[in-house]
Design a protein that fits this description.
Largest sheet of chain B: 5 strands, mixed
Largest interface: A-B, 35 and 36 residues
Bound molecules: zinc ion
Distance between the termini of chain A: 34 Å
Distance between the termini of chain B: 56 Å
Shape of chain B: globular
Number of helices of chain B: 8
Number of helices of chain A: 11
Largest sheet of chain A: 5 strands, mixed
Number of strands of chain A: 10
Structural class of chain A: alpha/beta
Strand content of chain A: 15-25%
Oligomer: heterodimer
Shape of chain A: globular
Radius of gyration of chain A: 21 Å
Chain lengths: 345, 233
């Protein structure tokens, strides 16, 4: 009686290098950002019109130790204050993943810290846990350059994929349409802005697939945009890229938000969250906020700097894995096509 | 003074520990390995075998390339992270010089090469009698260009490296008797040689460790293409 077990605070170092950001962060108890450092390579990939894997890997080697040092410095912490190191194991560009993974291994080994390989998409979802506690059942709409997925979570560490893209990811479609419209890389944010500034929209198709499917398809929409552009050019008519941008974005946003709402109703979720780089899209955020306010289901999307790739989200997801007893060995390897599997069963 | 040496620049994986001028442990494996999965494991195995911990390492030597892009990056990332976070000095050594040092008892020119596919090699030539100074610079060459450079030296050349056999016919065709094939026993990278060379080189500390990067000796393909495009504009 009268005996209290004081739960010790957990300080976890997260490391992320799956694409073109080298990032390190320290997170307390999986919910509180202590430091969050991101070295972006966007400028150096611009001239190539997209991320070049070999260039990305070269930059990660240049940046990785500096980024980790900065994360420790901003947190005013020593390695000895840490409880574990979590690193993105996949999915992502294999050569890029390997840099974060090997830096994480060397760091953990040097300080006798446990190592936890973490899923990048679990990270994007758990970015929300840094803002407000996740409540289950929870529905996550994951939208990024490589992903368009609806994920249902019944509890921490449980992921059920209820819908995914059958062809292009939403972000990929944005990039391709941006190329058609001659918008420099990265085109997604620019299309979002153009759509916002346009009051007229070209009518493009909505692809719903089978009646009860939660899957997505964006390649038809992309082709429709390309065809429209091509035909308009042939007729020698004026093309207003703003109208195209709004037409394209309206279609993407309507399909994403309608399917998310239907899934939220069917599974009776307590919380809906958006995650991934494309969740930074203003048009998408506004629509999701509107429909879920009307529906009366709490909807959250993290602030911009936690939507794009960062290591705080890896530390946040990794903390839950660490608490569940998950550990990786020194043979941890990059898994470019890693599936999002539950870690609680 | 305890040194850790790491080489993952090519197919083989080589790690060694040297203490005060004595090799404590030395391991090389020459099968198609996955360095990302295996290198840290090998370092841990070696340290455990000689009952040392990471914190007891005083300096780190790593082969900095050239070679497989991914391979070099794994070794360099492990080495620079260990050196930075343990606050120990780091020394990068040419992967080609490391191979050449296997012929330390030889008194002449040593050429080492690594197959870079499509009749290309990463190669260098070194004067074993003069501290292995480069007489042909470490670079990415077509095999024909390399042979031409070695031919121009007009002296016997000892060839070391497990990829030499892939090009031996072409080498002998031009160099004839001047081409000498080293025994296969010295064809593999030796991380103790890496340390032996590193001991005589300047040590990197502080920001220099952060800034340490592989010596690719070649532009990334996208970069080379981009530069070509700029020229044609
Ligand atoms: Zn991402």
């Amino acid at each position: 009686m009268g005996e209290f077990i004081m739960e010790k605070d957990l300080y976890i170092l997260g490391i992320e290098s799956s694409c073109d950001e080298t990032a390190a962060s320290i997170v307390k108890n999986g919910t509180e950002i202590v430091s969050n450092v991101v070295a972006s390579q966007i400028e150096s990939h611009k001239r190539f019109g997209g991320v070049v894997p070999e260039i990305a890997s070269r930059h990660h080697v240049e940046n990785v130790t500096m980024v980790i040092e900065e994360a420790l410095k901003q947190a005013d912490m020593e390695p000895a204050n840490l409880d574990a190191v979590c690193v993105t194991e996949g999915p992502g560009l294999v050569g890029a993943l390997l840099i974060g993974i090997n830096a994480a291994k060397a760091f953990a080994f040097a300080h006798n810290l446990p190592l936890v390989g973490t899923h990048h998409i679990a990270g994007h979802i758990y970015a929300n846990n840094l803002m407000q506690p996740m409540e289950f059942p929870l529905l996550a709409l994951v939208v990024s350059g490589g992903h368009t997925e609806l994920v249902l979570m019944d509890e921490h560490g449980s992921f059920e994929l209820i819908g995914e893209t059958r062809d292009d990811a939403a972000g990929e479609a944005y990039d391709k349409v941006a190329r058609v419209l001659d918008i420099p890389y990265p085109g997604g944010p620019r299309i979002d802005k153009m759509a916002h500034e346009s009051d007229e929209a070209i009518e493009f198709p909505r692809v719903w697939l089978e009646k009860d499917s939660y899957d997505f398809s964006f390649s038809g929409l992309k082709s429709a945009v390309i065809n429209y552009q091509h035909n308009a050019k042939q007729r020698g008519g004026d093309i207003n890229p703003y109208h195209i941008a709004k037409g394209f974005q309206d279609s993407v946003v309507e399909v994403l938000s309608t399917k998310t709402l239907r899934a939220a109703r069917e599974f009776g979720v307590k919380q809906v969250i958006a995650a991934g780089g494309v969740s930074a899209n203003k048009g998408l955020r506004a629509e999701l906020e509107k429909i879920f306010a009307e529906e009366g289901i709490p909807f959250f999307v993290p602030p911009l700097k936690l939507c794009t790739d960062n290591a705080a989200m890896i530390a946040a997801a990794g903390t839950e894995m660490f608490k569940a007893g998950k550990r990786s060995g020194w043979d941890l390897n990059g898994r470019p096509g890693m599936e999002l599997l539950s870690w609680n069963d | 003074m305890i040194w850790l040496g790491i080489d993952t620049a090519n197919t083989p994986l080589a790690v060694a520990l040297v203490k005060d001028g004595q090799v404590l442990a030395n391991e090389v494996t020459n099968i198609k390995l996955n360095h990302s999965g295996g290198a840290m494991l090998a370092i841990e195995r070696l340290l455990t075998r000689v009952k040392l911990t990471a914190q007891q390492i005083d300096a780190i030597a790593v082969s900095e390339g050239p070679g497989s892009y991914t391979g070099i990056r794994i070794g360099v990332t492990l080495a620079k992270t260990l050196a930075w976070t343990l606050k120990k000095p780091l020394v990068g050594v040419s992967s080609l010089k490391m191979l050449a040092a296997n012929a330390a008892m030889y008194n002449g020119i040593v050429c080492t090469l690594i197959d870079a596919r499509r009749q290309n090699v990463y190669a260098g030539a070194f004067d074993a009698a003069a501290n292995f100074e480069n007489v042909v610079e470490d670079h990415h060459y077509s095999i024909a260009d390399l042979i031409e450079k070695l031919d121009a030296l007009n002296v016997p050349v000892l060839f070391v490296g497990h990829d030499v056999d892939n090009f031996w016919e072409a080498i002998v065709e031009t160099l004839g008797d001047r081409a000498i094939r080293a025994p296969y026993t010295i064809d593999l990278p030796d991380a103790a040689q890496l340390i032996y060379l590193a001991e005589k080189m300047p040590q990197l500390t502080g920001d220099a460790v952060h800034n340490f990067v592989p010596q690719y000796r070649r532009l990334a393909e996208a970069e080379a293409n981009w530069m070509k495009e700029q020229k044609n504009k």
